[in-house]
Amino acid sequence: MADAPLIAARGISKQFAGVEVLSDVDLDLMAGEIHALLGENGAGKSTFAKILAGVHRPTRGTLALNGQPVEVNNPTTAQRLGITLIHQEPISFPDMSVAENLVLGRTDSALLGRVPWAEMEQGAKDLMTQLGVRIDVTKPMRGLSIADQQMVEIARALASDSRLIIMDEPTAPLTPKEVDTLFKIARRLRDEGRTIIFISHRLEEVQALCDRATIFRDGALVDTVDVVDVTDEDIIKLMIGRPLRELIHKTGSEIGEVALEVSGLSQPGMFKNISFSVRKGEIVGLAGLVGAGRTDVARAIFGVAPAQSGTINVNGAPVTIAEPSDAIDLGLAFVPEDRAVAGIFKTLSVEHNITATVPGKIAPRGFISRGIEKALTAQSVKQLRIRLASVRQPIGELSGGNQQKAILARWLHTDPQILILDEPTRGIDIGVKAEFYDMIGKLAADGRAILLISSELPELLALCDRILVMAEGELTADLLRADATQETIMHAAVPKTGNHAQESAA
Amino acid sequence: MTMQTETAKPTRDSADARPMWQVVLVRPEVMTFALLVGAFIIASNLSPFFSDAQFILESSTYYVEYSIIALVLTLVIISGEIDLSPAAMMALSACVFAALYQAGLPIGLAMIASLATGVLMGLFNGILVVVFKLPSIIVTIGTLTLYRGLAQVLAGDRSIGKFPQWFNGIDYRLILDVPVPVIVFVIISVALAAILGTTVIGRQIYQVGTSEIASIHAGIRVRRIKLGLFVAMGVASSIGGLLTASRLASVRYDMATGGELQMVLMVMLGGTYIFGGRGSILGTFLASWLLVIIATGMTVANIAITAQLIVMGALLIISIIATNAIYARTQR
């Protein structure tokens, strides 16, 4: 490492609408290091990264690049200074080719100048070779996987010879193999003397990849540590300011009759021959990689996109679920994965969001009773500890965890007997996660059947009585909790194309 | 249920609630109301007629058919769709009425047939949007041409008239000094405002317009609501067509040509959000009167029809900008 830092941030503070989200951050980033930024959602790590990349301007504080004070007023300036932010879901022009996307934003040619197609393509190919990835640069971006789109963004950073590359949760949408490739490339870039900021929630990745880590909490920098010197436990303690409680769901709830049974559920191109059952009081996990078809199965059961063939039994009787209202009438509830799109009504009040599933309750005689609606909402706010300024404020103003609590509250009002929870804790602070685990455990203890879809294996292992695994649209394992480990689950989750040996009879 | 407590968590779990005065005052209907007052003051200076309520009520009968349909259109736009075919639906349902009456059908039955035509036309729009999942703007641009074409086939190039005396001139019939069409408008305004503000259907119209996907996931019967709204458009258009037939004492295929744009203008001026999820009947109600005063005022002030179009167009753009700005400010 060089002696002088590549970037020296001093007293960086940022206010949004009078709220200080970042206060007095001093941080030195060295050339040739991979530096993790850690912290709960809203702790300030992303805001800090965006200030470096010129997306936000600091309210106070200074930045120096190689000892020279600089002002990074916008992303273009950042680019010129050699700072690139790589988005989690890359922003690109899906109908343009990879090569065209690579030269976007470069302003070194005249407005009406000739486009040097051949050179452009050759340059793009060289970059891909340099990265050691095989991507056809003449193909449109649309067809690429998210991993490959990220590679294109990294290639773009290289093309503009960036010295600081900021990766904001790059691994969230990737498969383990793609993560490996990304790490290899990140290490290579570091060895070339570039600096990488790596933002992630996954501590094991930080341990595997990063040299140093800086932990944020409540908008302040808590500590910067050498990764080799600390354990995950230490980092969590710094992140949440207290030791993490045991998250394991201990209440061994009583397991009763079969509540939900699906058999032979198939939807061409999405999933086939899915059969399993969930009993009352049981928490059944559904593991698998992104794209394995887990969400499609959940949507089919709930009637959002019914399956083409197969049967569903509820409490032993065959049922037809053509649309979600049928499912609700049968006592099902579904907390969808994509909260922002399929869960909340962003601009409507918390109150209207919470009572959306129970029109009959709030309007017993056809007209909505403000009194009943208020009472139902107050009950939810108290029961689930939803933190808000007012139940009449738009739900979009709440934090992710509190939005998710409101969505769960919406379903608890229907008194569901079967709950399908799709990634219920994604993007939620660790503290609130613990509350969710507790709630899920209690719901099962009340005798409700729960199907829990999650990509976080520790979460599944902590909560579930049984874990199903899907790969490429098929069920590949049905493991009892005692038999389930991260290894057995991953083994069943990784696609083995052309070899569907381990089909389990559920 | 008791939850784990000691989440001595930092504050920013939500933004602060907006103060009450902002909730009440910073909303698009206030803009509409201010424009209405402004227009009234200017118009009163142009002509002393405007201090006479009777004059305003009489003038309003030229627009009130559009206003009635604009009320229903408000619901459609809040639900996230649009219907550009109502003027054509007015023409076709009125032509059906006139042609059947002329063919010897009793006038009552001809009116029922006209309403049924409205239901069918609305149903057709609705099915194309809901079942075939086509964008409503394209569907209704298509059917506006289709319905107008059918009206022309049915009525040809002539006026159909000679209705019984009692049918004609509904705009001159007064109840408590108020023309009947205006009374119809007020009653429908109150009814729709009540539905939108106090019933589950009203609530769900907002929810569907805010997020169709979230609505589906919450078990709201989105297709049924949208289909119902398109049918309601057909019925309202048919009522509008009959009122127009009565006012003009005749029917031609080109009745209300271009009227759909006036209706959209009323809804937009009333602060309803073009992308759905937000808006109110009160806004459209106020905007209807605003339009009456502006249009009549310009006529009284001898402003040429061509210049009037410029004012209307400018108003539409200003209202959309203002509405967007207000929503952007109040809902982050």
TrEMBL record, chain A:
Gene3D superfamilies: P-loop containing nucleotide triphosphate hydrolases (3.40.50.300). Keywords: ATP-binding, Cell membrane, Membrane, Nucleotide-binding, Repeat, Sugar transport, Translocase, Transport. InterPro entries: AAA+_ATPase, ABC_carbohydrate_import_ATPase, ABC_transporter-like_ATP-bd, ABC_transporter-like_CS, P-loop_NTPase. It holds the Pfam family ABC_tran. SUPFAM superfamilies: P-loop containing nucleoside triphosphate hydrolases. SMART domains: AAA. Residues 7-243, 255-497 form the ABC transporter domain. GO terms for molecular function: ATP binding. The keyword Chaperone does not apply. Transmembrane segments: none annotated. It comes from the Bacteria. The keyword Lyase does not apply. Belongs to the ABC transporter superfamily. This is Sugar ABC transporter ATP-binding protein. The lineage of its organism: Bacteria, Pseudomonadati, Pseudomonadota, Alphaproteobacteria, Hyphomicrobiales.
TrEMBL record, chain B:
The keyword Glycosyltransferase does not apply. Its main location: membrane. The chain crosses the membrane at residues 30-50, 62-82, 88-116, 123-147, 182-206, 227-249, 255-275, 282-303, 309-328. Keywords: Cell inner membrane, Cell membrane, Membrane, Transmembrane, Transmembrane helix, Transport. It is found in: Cell membrane. Pfam families: BPD_transp_2 (PF02653). The complex is composed of two ATP-binding proteins (LsrA), two transmembrane proteins (LsrC and LsrD) and a solute-binding protein (LsrB). This is Autoinducer 2 import system permease protein LsrD. It comes from Devosia rhodophyticola.
